[in-house]
Design a protein that fits this description.
The chain is mainly alpha-helical and 217 residues long. The chain is 78% helix and 0% strand. Keywords: Membrane, Transmembrane, Transmembrane helix.
Length: 217
């Protein structure tokens, strides 16, 4: 019995189409960053916390910066470069610490611009960067496997992101509590951010993948 032929490689892509997709991924990543921050604020308020208005621009700036860097890198690996799972995971893992640094930098720049002193970080930059590298490396790997298999169901992509988020939310909460006691509102906000964001990032990657398929079809 002869072996089944390997699937044909995707045809070469017009660079203009790739640039349009990158721009779309960046716009979606910005929207995701804003949307998650809204949910974080809602979670804080529902948990009985207080949201300091002067600190909102800092949180939004850091959230958007994080979202753009990590989601764009993951999306480029999966839907623009159409890299294999290992390479896509490596790209996401390498850019996750960059995204953490970008978020911290955006927070500091906005803080200086509006003259507000931000809250000191409860978790060290190295610890956070390491956790995010593992988390988004795994997410990029799994999403690339779905894309490589020809999966087109949105629920599979979003569900994968949600599952990764739930697992690593537990790790993030443990690290945060190990660093010191935290108010209930802060824990609720952290849980929402850690669970929702990977699912949203997977949705962004899905849109990029569907755009790539439509461009070739």
């Amino acid at each position: 019995m002869t072996a089944a032929p390997a699937p044909a490689e995707d045809p070469a892509e017009d660079p203009a189409d790739a640039l349009r997709r990158i721009a779309a991924l960046a716009a979606l990543a910005v929207a995701l960053g804003f949307g998650v921050q809204v949910l974080v604020v809602v979670a804080k308020l529902l948990a009985g916390g207080y949201v300091a208005r002067p600190l909102l621009p800092l949180d939004v700036a850091s959230g958007v910066a994080w979202s753009v860097v990590v989601c764009l890198a993951t999306g480029i690996g999966v839907s623009v470069l159409r890299a294999g799972p290992a390479v896509s995971g490596l790209i996401a893992a390498l850019f996750a610490p960059v995204a953490v640094a970008a978020a911290r930098a955006a927070n500091q720049v906005m803080s200086a611009a509006i003259g507000v002193i931000g809250k000191p970080a409860a978790v060290s930059l190295v610890t956070l960067a390491g956790l995010k590298a593992v988390e988004y490396g795994l997410l990029g790997f799994l999403l690339a496997r779905l894309a490589r298999s020809g999966e087109t169901r949105f629920a599979r992509f979003a569900g994968t992101g949600l599952a990764v988020g739930v697992v690593f939310a537990g790790a993030a909460l443990w690290i945060r509590l190990h660093a010191g006691a935290a108010p209930v509102a802060e824990i609720a906000a952290l849980a929402v951010n850690e669970v929702v964001f990977p699912a949203g990032c997977a949705a962004v990657v899905y849109v990029g993948r569907m755009m790539a398929r439509a461009g070739r079809g």
